[in-house]
Design a protein that fits this description.
Largest sheet of chain B: 6 strands, mixed
Low-confidence stretches of chain B: none
Shape of chain B: globular
Radius of gyration of chain A: 13 Å
Mean pLDDT of chain B: 93
Number of helices of chain B: 0
Oligomer: heterodimer
Number of helices of chain A: 0
Chain lengths: 113, 118
């Protein structure tokens, strides 16, 4: 069974631009979560989607948004990019329940210049 | 809010030896799950082991085992017969076991960088 895939793997943007990252979960998984990883803040939870609905959100500004499609694929969008948004963005999928283990994708490395 | 603490930023071990990584957590919940994830230089986060809080028996996966002390809120990872491929950043993580939607997030510690000495 294929793992979680994320595209693109690397992105370079400039301040003020917006960016969209994509995540395809493991087949059969309906929950998708997003995390931001930076050297200074570590791993921080962004949001989680299940059945096209956001059911949990971390403490990030409104510039960070996401959505999930009917096939469980998810996208996250960051508008008006800031230098501090440079990070590794990790997507994780799980079956559906809060007790299910999350499996991670390889991440998207975003650099904001 | 739950917190996870990893007090060892770096550890090293000789190849074939045993090493233990420490993790403590703070929660008022009685039902929860604990995880160890490994992040090698490729940056892919890989699940190492999972422990359910309601299980008294410590989880084991091949060379990896945990020492789960619920009363002390301690969850250490023991790696036996260390191999070069074990070199990575290791993260301890907590997840609530409450079934209400909204508690699905993982709370991570700051990580321990493990170096394997040939």
């Amino acid at each position: 069974k294929a793992g979680v895939t994320q595209t693109p793997r690397y992105l370079i943007k400039t301040r003020g631009q917006q960016v969209t990252l994509s995540c395809s979960p493991i087949s059969g998984h309906r929950s998708v979560s997003w995390y931001q990883q930076t050297p200074g803040q570590g791993l921080q939870f962004l949001f989680e989607y299940f059945s096209e609905t956001q059911r949990n959100k971390g403490n990030f500004p409104g510039r960070f948004s996401g959505r999930q499609f009917s096939n469980s694929r998810s996208e996250m969008n960051v508008s008006t990019l800031e230098l501090g948004d440079s990070a590794l963005y990790l997507c994780a999928s799980s079956l559906q329940k809060s007790t299910d283990t999350q499996y991670f994708g390889p991440g998207t490395r975003l650099t904001v210049l | 809010a739950q917190t996870v603490t990893q007090s060892q930023p770096e550890m090293s071990v000789q190849e074939a030896e045993t090493v233990t990584l420490s993790c403590t957590y703070d929660t008022s919940e009685s039902d929860y799950y604990l995880f160890w994830y490994k992040q090698p230089p490729s940056r892919q986060m890989i699940l190492v082991i999972r422990q359910e809080a309601y299980k008294q028996q410590n989880a084991t996966e091949n060379r990896f085992s945990v020492n789960f002390q619920k009363a002390a809120k301690s969850f250490s990872l023991k790696i036996s017969d260390s191999q070069l491929g074990d070199a990575a950043m290791y993260f301890c993580a907590y997840r609530s076991g409450i079934s209400n939607f909204g508690n699905e997030k993982l709370t991570f510690g700051t990580g321990t960088r493990l170096t394997i000495i040939p």
